[in-house]
């Protein structure tokens, strides 16, 4: 999978492609949001920002192999600190999981983050998704804090993990 690329995408031109991918990866989307993927999920992918940031701080990418979209990811620059990249989502087509795709995507993210002079990658992983927790920790991420569900949250307990660049 050496021919993978992260290509910038936007809502206006890529919403349908993002929805198609989300429907292929409905196993994860349903785990996260409790329902099948829909255009609201896609809108959140492109528009939902962490506290204190704007959509200008979001960097959504398609994971491309030639002309095929194998995944998508979005990072928020400057959350929680100015030199952090928060990985909001890495959604991969299930047909390509288990073949090193996640590791290759992470390498592309690290490369872009270093080029942007970021010093830390952070993300949160659902406690209900132990396979993802294992993946991120195998790749060198370490626990940063535990984020328990609250009455006003989506009901998921999460681990926040970090990786120093």
UniProtKB/TrEMBL annotation:
Record's keyword annotation contains Transferase: yes
Stretches assigned to the N-acetyltransferase domain: 4-165
> What are the entry keywords?
Acyltransferase, Transferase
One Pfam family here: Acetyltransf_1
Determine if Acyltransferase is one of this entry's keywords. yes
Which InterPro entries does the UniProt record give? Acyl_CoA_acyltransferase (IPR016181), Bact_Acetyltransf (IPR050832), GNAT_dom (IPR000182)
Q: What is this protein called?
A: N-acetyltransferase domain-containing protein
**What organism is listed for this UniProt entry?**
Roseobacter fucihabitans
Lineage at the top is: Bacteria, Pseudomonadati, Pseudomonadota, Alphaproteobacteria, Rhodobacterales
